Amino acid sequence: MPLLIKNGEIVTASERYVADIFCENETITRIDKNISAPPGTEVIDATGKYVFPGFIDPHVHIYLPFMGTFAKDTHETASRAALIGGTTTFIEMICPGREEKPLEAFELWLGKAQGTSACDFTFHMGVTRYDEEAERDFKEIVRRGVSSFKIFLAYKGALCVTDEELYKTLCLARKLGVITTAHCENADLIVELQKKLLAEGKTGPEFHEASRPPVVEAEGVHHLMTFAEMTGAHVYIVHLSCEEALREAMAGAARGVNVWVETLIQYLLCDKADAEKPNFEGAKFVMSPPLREKKNQKVLWNALRKGFASTLATDHAPFDFATQKQMGKDDFTRIPNGIPSLEDRVNLYFTHGVQRGQIDLHTFVNTASTHAAKLFGLFPRKGTIQPGSDADLVIYDSNYRGKISAKSHAMNLDYNAFEGMEIEGRPHVVTVRGRVAVRDGKFVGEAGRGKFLQREPNHF
Ligand code: URP
Ligand code: ZN
Ligand code: ZN
């Protein structure tokens, strides 16, 4: 059925105007004043509301075997939560163990998402081992439409790559024209600091940050900059958390490295003190890189405003408090790392960014949608509102007032790191390729309607 959205204020990364949007066959076909609805059209009145392009989360984990357990969401629960929060596309990490075959991992992850996700999705291919067999698989995976890699410089003995593997990955990425996303922390330093802290009897979640201080993250970024400079590869630093790391990225950029920076909603709103909460509550906030001193929030907001940081993601990695976080009750190094935030990113970013005057509307759209679409080969199919683009639209009510709570969230998790925080705005209607998937906080979409988005390399 065709869809007509009337009188909304359309906001993209560069434009803002009132018009009607007509959608047919899953795409936007016309944008104009006073479009009349042909018979059988669903009409939505968006008067007084913003119409944003569907938001894109470029860093999520849904199927995630990690630290001896599995993240809690399924693609069905995660996509529903994403859509309720205005995210219509996500990019998930494929994270095979070192002993697993990359192509089999790709097929496993694709099989989990296809037929279950309610929103569109694609992947970054995790490179957790590099040899001839793996290289053949990576080439095939790129041919099948995955045009970004993911590497970990942290998690020694698990997902972490050696320098030789890092070099070879970046050489291949350069040759194939794909971008490499990277978790930047020095793995060996973390292991040594963890051992030292545990030997001193410092076993609680409040010591997680001390085991991976800013200098350890900055060293990881510096390391990546060196390898990117040597290979000419395009690199994207995931979940950058602090000033020290940002300085290294900018120093790399200043000498010509092709580098982009992502930060996360939790680094803007939570800080080190959250991971120091008593009664093991701090475990809810254990993630890597860790939450930092509050002063870094100002630096990160500024980076988003000025374009030093290109994207605002979640790194959604849901492990429940009642059982999974408890695995590290006597040893913080065993607390599964990560927090759930897929559902709340857009509303919190709008509230604390736009409503509180930290960023303007265009920066909001650019960093939460458009720039990710451009960097990862989804633009202009996703990330904007123009004829020919997929009709993924968020009709946004900036007058809505509410509170975040695990009692009402859709994520499959027993806690919410943003519990009790107020939101000033939420999606009124969310569409996925021309069909309504959310109305006033309620999911009305279809599990399994989400499509795997194949992406071309060499789109830079
Ligand atoms: O703490 C985090 N970030 N957990 C998820 C895995 C990762 O490093 O991205
Ligand atoms: Zn990471
Ligand atoms: Zn991650």
Topology:
Elements: E1 3-11, E2 16-24, E3 27-32, E4 42-45, E5 50-53, E6 55-60, E7 65-66, E8 69-70, H1 75-84, E9 87-94, H2 102-113, E10 120-126, H3 132-143, E11 148-152, H4 163-176, E12 179-183, H5 187-199, H6 208-211, H7 214-231, E13 235-237, H8 243-254, E14 259-264, H9 265-269, H10 295-306, E15 311-313, H11 345-355, H12 361-375, E16 393-403, E17 422-432, E18 435-439, E19 442-443
Parallel strand pairs: 1-4, 1-5, 6-9, 9-10, 10-11, 11-12, 12-13, 13-14, 14-15
Antiparallel strand pairs: 1-2, 2-3, 5-16, 7-8, 16-17, 17-18, 18-19
Helix pairs in contact: 7-8
Bound molecules: N-(aminocarbonyl)-beta-alanine and zinc ion (2 copies).
How would you describe this protein?
It is a single chain. The chain is of the alpha/beta class and 460 residues long. It is built from twelve helices and 19 strands. Strand 17 and strand 18 form a beta hairpin. Helix 7 runs parallel beside helix 8. The longest helix has 18 residues. It is globular and about 70 Å long. The model has no long low-confidence stretch (mean pLDDT 98). Bound molecules: N-(aminocarbonyl)-beta-alanine (URP) and zinc ion (2 copies). N-(aminocarbonyl)-beta-alanine binds next to loops.
